[in-house]
């Protein structure tokens, strides 16, 4: 299992207060007066940082990876840091659960990846408004017609080895009387014309896939075990032939007795 590195700024070292899973390294510092040489996936503030610390934290922390406890006063420069780095409040009673169940989702290279937005193309026949939302997404506004036609496409093919399985998840939001479908075409290796297979999924299909995935999640029981049994179960889950998404779900269903 990949290793998560956490930096905690505060007066008390959490290594002596919480159970730290084997896949997590938590480094405690009393002050933050220079940029660390290590790359940290998560930062936790257990006290209000000083003004000189705030500037350095801004340079070190990535968006959505900063968590602040109830001991942090979010005002002035600290409020600016929290706003700019999309910080999240975490209650003291939730810290242990987060370390055991949720920290694993902050791997820098989790299972799967997103297609690059820069590789997304808009059909030349679309006559509506196109708004690019930075690296987050694109918004299409206008009349799409009465029949299904291509609206967007990805410019580059994704190579697939023999026997390889792909999980494709279409992320979208719609407003008004709009229907969406996903079309996938498999080409022969080295060819842009020889079609080997073709799939088309409407919204009912996409919803059915999601419901099936959710039912698999719901079917996994929640267990509370001691630390020794927790480590054994984590090792067993790691050896499963399931994909990493389902492994993460299984891990999240197991908690450790305080």
The helix content is 10-25%
Mean pLDDT: 84
N-end to C-end Cα span = 23 Å
Largest sheet: 5 strands, parallel
Strand order of the largest sheet: 2-1-3-4-5
Helix-strand string:
EEEHEHEHEEEEEEHEHHE
| Rg over alpha carbons | 23 Å
Class per helix and strand makeup:
alpha/beta
> Using DSSP, what is the number of strands?
13
Shape: globular
Low-confidence stretches: none
CATH class of one domain: Alpha Beta
Give the CATH topology of one domain: Rossmann fold
Give the percentage of residues in beta strands: 15-25%
In DSSP terms, counting alpha (H) and pi (I) runs of 4 or more, how many helices? 6
List the helices and strands and how they pair.
Elements (H helix, E strand, L loop, with lengths): L3 E6 L14 E6 L12 E4 L5 H10 L5 E3 L8 H8 L3 E2 L5 H8 L17 E3 L6 E5 L3 E5 L10 E3 L27 E6 L7 E7 L1 H16 L4 E3 L1 H12 L5 H9 L1 E3 L2
Parallel strand pairs: 1-2, 1-3, 3-4, 4-5, 12-13
Antiparallel strand pairs: 6-9, 7-8, 10-11
Helix pairs in contact: 1-2
Word description of this protein:
The protein is α/β, with parallel strands linked by helices and 258 residues long. Among the domains are: 4-106, Rossmann fold; 220-256, no CATH class. It has six helices and 13 strands. It has helices at 51-60, 77-84, 95-102, 203-218, 227-238, 244-252, and strands at residues 4-9, 24-29, 42-45, 66-68, 88-89, 120-122, 129-133, 137-141, 152-154, 182-187, 195-201, 223-225, 254-256. The strands form five sheets. A five-stranded parallel beta sheet has the order 2-1-3-4-5, with no helix packed on it. A two-stranded antiparallel sheet has the order 6-9. The radius of gyration is 23 Å and the shape is globular. 12% of the residues are buried.
